[in-house]
Design a protein that fits this description.
By secondary structure, this protein is an alpha+beta fold.
């Protein structure tokens, strides 16, 4: 978990075969509370691994703004059907991009929530690229997508960390042992 400046606020080492959102409450909720105690406004963006009603509820209870990608389904696609038709005329060399915000309630949700759709028609592609984000942000739909897309910056920070300390090449079989490995490796390198 990162702040907007790229500082790592929290991280959790876990097996590679574990779902990326498993144990979210152990990591996310204490950090939200810590940031709020410091008087900071908290906003959360995440991929579809966190697209769970219990995550939305926990964030809403704490007054946290969020933008979380959700997987497409038939009901969502029906809500944006008018955007899925290819624009009439000669195809543009630049992608044609449309946004739509609407209220949606999945069967597993207790309440309707705002969903923002982004539909992109690219030259030479038969079908549009479609993405959905569930949010409680009051920004215009395009701004919600821009806010969500900044999530990619955090992905770059993770990549940098993996390359800098070789986080993916841990030699010990136990997590506890690997927690101190980078420091030991640095010490050996200096000798």
């Amino acid at each position: 978990m990162f702040d907007r400046a790229g500082d790592c606020l929290a991280a959790k080492l876990r097996p590679g075969n574990v779902h990326s959102a498993e144990g979210w409450e152990e990591l996310l909720l204490p950090e939200i509370e810590r940031q709020q105690k410091l008087g900071k406004e908290v906003a959360f963006r995440a991929d579809t691994a966190f697209a769970k009603p219990e995550v939305y509820g926990a964030l809403e209870e704490r007054g946290v703004r969020y933008a979380i990608r959700i997987p497409a389904n038939d009901a969502l696609m029906r809500d944006i059907a008018e955007l899925l038709t290819r624009p009439v005329g000669r195809p543009s060399h630049k992608p044609v991009v449309w946004y739509k915000g609407f209220l949606y309630q999945a069967e597993s949700w207790k309440t309707a929530r705002r969903v923002v759709a982004k539909v992109e028609h690219h030259a030479g592609e038969l079908f549009p690229r479609v993405g959905f984000i569930v949010t409680n942000l009051t920004l215009p739909s395009r701004a919600v997508v821009r806010f969500y897309n900044k999530r990619g910056t955090a992905e770059q920070w993770i990549k940098e960390g993996k390359q800098a300390v070789k986080m993916t090449r841990l030699s010990c079989h136990r997590f506890r042992s690997n927690e101190v490995r980078p420091a030991q490796r640095d010490e050996r390198d200096r000798l």
